[in-house]
Structure prediction request, 209 residues.
Amino acid sequence: MSKLHVFDHPLITHKLSIMRQVETGSKDFRELLNEIAMLMGYEVTRDLPTEEYTIETPLETMQGKRIAGEKLAIVPILRAGLGMVDGLLKLVPVAKVGHIGLYRDPETHLPVEYYCKMPENIESRIVIVVDPMLATGGSAIDAIKLLKDRGVVNIKFMCLVAAPEGVAALQEAHPDVDIYVAALDRQLNDHKYILPGLGDAGDRIFGTK
Ligand code: PRP
Ligand code: URA
Prediction:
């Protein structure tokens, strides 16, 4: 079974509470989302493999450390996942970025794929899939399957707000993928929106309805 990491850091809960407020506009919502993504990224990247290499300080030679291997790829689920990319890139500016386009059909609530573009050698990278909302889990499950079909073996999923139903579905479908959430909310409503949640993340980021 995959691990569920719930962040209860005061900076994160403070910023997330402002995002949840109905009167918070798109500009603040976007800024706060990226700030939280950066704070979460510090923990999500904790177990990145490192390797030693020789460096010269002004005084002597020593063994420094650098991130090993093909490094990271960040894969946002469009649209709303885009809102978390810049925050993570601030931490890891050399990361590559792939994109998966999925939207939830308003009637069935099932994800529909419309776009997929991955960086080279995606299969040998550690991939962090990002999306602010994990509701039924359908979008995350399909996005991760798409990556596994392309040979990716090391995947983490990072979101802002999750419903217990989505966490359970994702853990069942992909027990090897650790899940990082800023908050675990109460439940889904009849329209499969998260309660108390923050509404439609994509609409709040981009100012659409
Ligand atoms: C939202 C959200 C997730 C998905 C979560 O996207 O950003 O991708 O719903 O729901 P699920 O866990 O039930 O699949 P949406 O379909 O609204 O598309 P958008 O990002 O383009 O607004
Ligand atoms: N997608 C959202 O943007 N918000 C929810 O609460 C559920 C799915």
Notes: The first strand starts at residue 4 and ends at 6. The chain has a mean pLDDT of 96. Helices lie at 10-20, 26-44, 85-91, 138-149, 164-173, 201-206. The CA atoms of residues 34 and 93 lie 14 Å apart.
